[in-house]
């Protein structure tokens, strides 16, 4: 039986019996994180600065917070401001033997990862994946001649010097029990927010800048030219497939649109196979865009994906563009 750590990290009581057992490891992890960051700040470990500005989009917690839609929206905003952006990303789950790799809309997600392929399809940018963000950035600059780099994740990859840090927080779940790994979901202590440039909350309510994910039209996996409003499936039973870090908002979004949802959650970055598609037969299937990247080759005619677009509050967009204007002036 596989234990889902989120049941510990986001327990409502925050007193899960395993939490106390794991706390000493969390304290050790947090101490190592602080020492490592201090080493980069003092120059004991070297960061490398690339010849173009780097805008980094990251989070403090493990799991999905909506960074990919945010990166896509940043590409649009920066283009409108006159920048030529490129994107670098880790390529999590990719099995390529050599990194970094240029990612195209036709790339195999099994080799380079699902999120990089999605970014390449949606952004129209040069996208480069690789665990070494510095090497990925150099290749992206060489391939694109870009004027600015957007790093999808990598907040803790301090070897890559960055000019602007944006941290995205799940506005509903927050930081869970507030502990670092493994007792909690935090990659770094919350105090790290004191040193970032911009903080954005996905959903939820309260003070601070907000981002909402707005659903678009359903797109057919077998024939992407076929599109239909999500409301077409209102009142119908569907199989909702989601192999993402936090699938609950996706399921709730479908239910809010009136669909009768049969939930099929999978682990984040799940490697789908045709046998999975066989299990979904009998009902229309609606999945996230990230999942669709890996399912198109065996999709049936009633398999649909739901793209989402990041909607940013105007104040956040204004703050961002002022800061990128400063980056241009300082170069």
UniProtKB/TrEMBL annotation:
Residues holding ATP: 61-68
Its GO biological process terms?
A: lipid A biosynthetic process; lipopolysaccharide core region biosynthetic process
What does the record give as the reaction this protein catalyses?
a lipid A disaccharide + ATP = a lipid IVA + ADP + H(+)
Its domain of life? Answer: Bacteria
Give EC number(s), comma-separated: 2.7.1.130
Please list every transmembrane segment annotated in the UniProt record, as residue ranges.
Answer: none
Question: What keywords would UniProt list here?
Answer: ATP-binding, Kinase, Lipid A biosynthesis, Lipid biosynthesis, Lipid metabolism, Nucleotide-binding, Transferase
Q: Name one GO molecular function term.
A: lipid-A 4'-kinase activity
Q: Which biological pathway?
A: Glycolipid biosynthesis; lipid IV(A) biosynthesis; lipid IV(A) from (3R)-3-hydroxytetradecanoyl-[acyl-carrier-protein] and UDP-N-acetyl-alpha-D-glucosamine: step 6/6
- Is Kinase among the key words of this record? yes
Might you report a single GO cellular component term?
A: plasma membrane
Indicate whether Kinase appears among the record's keywords: yes
* Described function: Transfers the gamma-phosphate of ATP to the 4'-position of a tetraacyldisaccharide 1-phosphate intermediate (termed DS-1-P) to form tetraacyldisaccharide 1,4'-bis-phosphate (lipid IVA).
Q: Tell me its family.
A: Belongs to the LpxK family.
Protein name as it appears in the record: Tetraacyldisaccharide 4'-kinase
Source organism of the structure = Allochromatium vinosum (strain ATCC 17899 / DSM 180 / NBRC 103801 / NCIMB 10441 / D)
Name of the coding gene: lpxK
């Amino acid at each position: 039986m596989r234990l889902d750590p989120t049941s510990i990290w986001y327990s409502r009581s925050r007193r899960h019996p395993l939490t106390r057992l794991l706390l000493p490891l969390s304290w050790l992890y947090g101490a190592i994180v602080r020492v490592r960051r201090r080493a980069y700040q003092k120059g004991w470990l070297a960061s490398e600065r690339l010849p173009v500005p780097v805008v980094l989009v990251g989070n403090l917690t493990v799991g999905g917070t909506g960074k990919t839609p945010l990166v896509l929206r940043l590409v649009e905003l920066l283009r409108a401001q006159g920048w030529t952006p490129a994107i670098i990303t880790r390529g999590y789950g990719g099995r390529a033997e050599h990194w970094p790799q240029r990612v195209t809309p036709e790339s195999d997600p099994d080799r380079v990862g699902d999120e990089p392929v999605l970014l390449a399809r949606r952004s129209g940018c040069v996208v480069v994946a690789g665990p070494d963000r510095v090497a990925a950035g150099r290749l992206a600059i060489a391939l694109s001649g870009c004027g600015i780099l957007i790093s999808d994740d990598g907040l803790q990859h301090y070897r890559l010097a960055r000019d602007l840090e944006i941290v995205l927080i799940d506005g509903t779940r927050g930081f869970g029990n507030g502990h670092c790994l493994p007792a909690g979901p935090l990659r770094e202590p919350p105090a790290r927010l004191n040193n970032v440039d911009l903080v954005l909350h996905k959903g939820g309510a309260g003070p601070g800048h907000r981002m909402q994910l707005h659903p678009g039209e359903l797109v057919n996996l077998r024939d992407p030219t076929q599109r239909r409003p999500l409301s077409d499936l209102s009142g119908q039973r569907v199989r909702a497939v989601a192999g993402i870090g936090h699938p609950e908002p996706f399921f709730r979004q479908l239910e809010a649109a009136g669909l009768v949802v049969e939930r099929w959650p999978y682990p984040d970055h799940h490697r789908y196979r045709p046998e999975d598609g066989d299990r979904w037969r009998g009902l229309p299937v609606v999945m996230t865009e990230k999942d669709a990247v890996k399912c198109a080759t065996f999709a049936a005619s009633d398999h649909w994906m739901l793209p989402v677009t990041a909607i940013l509050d105007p104040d956040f967009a204004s703050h961002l563009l002022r800061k990128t204007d400063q980056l241009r002036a300082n170069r």
